[in-house]
Amino acid sequence: MPKPTRAYLKMQEGEFRPLLWAQNNKPNEMLLGIYGLSAATSILRSAWPEQVVGKSDLPTIRYDYNDAVHVGIAFDHVTCHADGRFHLKMKDNSTVYSHAMQRVQALGPDTSTFLEVFVVSDIASRYAVSRKTKYPHIWFGISEHQYIALRGMFSGINFPVEQQMISTMSQFQRHSGGVVLTSGTLKGVFIGGPSTISDQAQAGRPSGTILSFKFPVDAEHWHIKTFLFE
Asked: Residues in the chain with pLDDT < 50?
């Protein structure tokens, strides 16, 4: 079985703080995990109501923390199955959220972009320092008072998702680097970089990592679901 690829926040002092991991668990199946702030096991703290939005409305979407629904369960991983099913698995083997992607094409090496992921970390100093890095891994350079915003796209290994990502990110001014994860029949591209948050904004933000999923419904609409992990 392929090993998971871990993503770390690398501090200027050479410290590594684990953020997330991705794994092509078996042909045409992908796993994604989020590390907790203080331990390997993260807590699914809360979830925002899901919504379907038009492509033109995406830039205007804002999340009010007061709209999030409390969950508070130990989290294990996200699974994207070959038949298009998607679910969040908890440590107790329960499923808190399940979604069937509305597509006629099952996941495989020629599948176009089937999922977009947005990860917005907490400030780096809040994550636990790893005793040692595990391979394979990637890292993003960051200072202790910064956070990192990552955008990811996942497709079959034969689809040019890298070109789609570059075209999409060209409209944004700030991004410092990217990485391509390939394993088996699926691949993912992550692009992003560190930013600084104001003290006022940080004070009003709940602690933890924000993870948002965008599923394509059709050419003009996206199904969005967002979670907070601590």
From this structure: none
